[in-house]
Amino acid sequence: MTASASVSPVSGRRGLWVGLAIVAALVIAMGASTKVVKIHSADDVEANVFSPERFGAQEFPKVQAAVTARAAPAPELATAIAADKDAAAKKYGVPGSLGPEMSVKFEGVAGEQSSGVYDVKVAGVPEGLRIRLQTGPAINGTDLRDATGTITFGQFVNQIEYQNAGSALNKELKKQVLSRIDNSSLTGKTLSVVGVFQLFNPKSWLVTPVSLEVK
């Protein structure tokens, strides 16, 4: 056998080990660059695809801050609405689909509740005004989405995404705020609230909170 046709056993083993080392290095490099994504998590979407979960987490703090900054004391707001609804809407509100969105803050005593919606007695508001507060588990409406005027239909592909954006903000409210309270036993307790409602019935407000403290 010629020298060119012979292979040393030592050289053969050395080549095998070098090959295995290269494969192992490639596997380690691939593992280091691989991100594990949980199915249905906020990361389980392409960057350019709308994710309700990601939207809610990013936008709720902004909505919360904007509503808090705009919120007028309930007695002041109620008096203005009773005097001139349109003027009050222009001064305090943000245009909404069925009526202006009004940001409000108040402290009051929780009364009876139905499906997590409490009547709240607030001192200083005009006689006959009914103030109700949503505490979950169901949060209805799109007040959080519409409260600031900065989240508009044109930002979304279609009506479904637009509706999902509203639902995502409601879910984030439950996660970040309402999960901290026991909404089954608020009757008789004093509540400190910042929230938003749509003004279409001046004598009945259904408030969606952005912050809620039980005293």
Q: Could you describe the 3D structure shown?
A:
This protein has 215 residues and is α+β, with helices and mostly antiparallel strands. The protein has one domain (52-214): OB fold (Dihydrolipoamide Acetyltransferase, E2P) (Beta Barrel), CATH 2.40.50.420. 39% of the residues lie in helices and 23% in strands. A five-stranded mixed β-barrel has the order 3-4-5-7-6. The protein is elongated, with a radius of gyration of 29 Å. It starts with 8 loop residues before the first helix and ends with a strand.
Distance between the termini: 96 Å
| Total helical segments | 6
Element pattern in H and E: HHEHHEEEEHHEE
Task: Give the spatial strand order of the biggest sheet.
Answer: 3-4-5-7-6
Helical residues, percent: 25-40%
> What is the assembly state of the chains in this entry?
single chain
Q: Please tell me how large the radius of gyration is.
A: 29 Å
Task: Output the CATH class name.
Answer: Mainly Beta
- The CATH architecture comes to Beta Barrel
Total tally of structural domains: 1
Q: Low-confidence runs (pLDDT<50, min 5 residues)?
A: 1-7
Strand content: 15-25%
- CATH topology grouping: OB fold (Dihydrolipoamide Acetyltransferase, E2P)
**Total E-strand runs:** 7
Q: Characterize the overall form.
A: elongated
CATH superfamily: Envelope glycoprotein gp160, DUF2291, alpha/beta domain
Q: Find the structural class using helix and strand composition.
A: alpha+beta
